[in-house]
Write a structure and sequence with these properties.
This protein has about 270 residues and is mostly helical. The protein folds into two domains: about 45 residues; about 210 residues, no CATH class. The chain contains nine helices and three strands, in the order H-H-H-H-E-H-H-H-H-E-E-H. Strand 2 and strand 3 form a beta hairpin. It is elongated, with a radius of gyration of 33 Å. The termini are far apart.
Length: about 270
């Protein structure tokens, strides 16, 4: 006689002697405990991932760079109304234009006047890599034979900053300084391209050779606090420039004057 095939479900659900029910219940309890533990572990891991801060990649402060260029461009337009100005007069026009600039753009430059001389720029707390990169930006401006070579050189500084062990804030500051140099070179190139007429100077070739490298060097020097505002006009007056920070008005005037002087008379910008 052939015995009927017994299904697995029959073996689990059909009561039998010798405590089969208790064994099945014990198995279900263990299965439930394992399931609950698995759910708890998954939930705990997800919560830990949510609470772990994501490591941000340092980036340049583009808004600050744009505001710096807005101020320089605004001042350039004011200077066009009064050509043939001395360096001191350039600074005076720049300072006088600040209230109108702040009103139009809603950007506070916090101009102030004190009876003492003021050294431009902010000093870097780290005298190693931070200072070296700022010095390289100035040195590259002096040696680059064209604006494209200068841009290539300072672009390489970005990777040095990102791969360094500098604090996050220091990396952001340096990347912003580098970005400012890059944007200013592009801005000056556009000014030179669309200028109605730039006097030709036999001693130099093109806007970069005549005055661009000088202007780039002045901006970089202002960023690392290497210029004395009192020596170039505006002693006792300070202004807070985007990216660069608090500088003597004469330093800000030197940046503006280098560009304006270059457009007006070539090599005179670096005198």
């Amino acid at each position: 006689m052939v015995r009927p095939i017994q299904l697995l479900s029959d073996r689990i659900l059909t009561p039998k002697p010798e405590g089969i029910w208790s064994l099945n219940l014990s198995f279900m309890k263990r299965l439930t405990i394992v399931t609950v533990l698995a759910i708890f572990m998954v939930t705990a891991c997800q919560e830990q991932e949510r609470m772990t801060p994501v490591q941000q990649v340092p980036q340049a402060d583009k808004a600050a760079i744009d505001n710096f260029i807005r101020f320089i461009d605004f001042t350039q337009k004011q200077l066009k109304k009064q050509p043939s100005l001395s360096k001191e007069q350039v600074t005076q026009v720049m300072v006088a234009s600040i209230p109108e600039f702040e009103k139009q753009y809603g950007i506070s430059l916090t101009a102030s006047f004190t009876p003492k001389q003021f050294t431009a720029g902010r000093r870097f707390s780290n005298e190693g890599l931070e200072l070296q990169i700022m010095q390289d930006m100035v040195a590259y401006a002096e040696t680059a034979y064209s604006e494209s070579q200068y841009l290539d050189n300072i672009s390489g500084l970005n990777s040095q900053v990102l791969s360094s062990d500098l604090p996050y804030e220091s990396k952001v500051n340096l990347l912003t300084q580098i970005g400012l140099q890059q944007s200013m070179v592009s801005y000056m190139g556009q000014l030179a391209l669309y200028a109605e007429e730039i006097p030709r100077v036999a001693a130099c070739d093109g806007w970069w050779g005549c005055w661009g490298r000088c202007a780039a060097g002045i901006i970089g020097s202002a960023g690392m606090g290497a210029l004395s505002g009192a020596s170039i006009g505006g002693g006792g007056c300070t202004v807070v420039l985007p990216v660069i920070g608090t500088v003597a008005c004469g330093t800000a005037g030197a940046v503006v004057g280098a560009i304006f002087g270059g457009l007006a008379g070539g090599a005179r910008a670096c005198d």
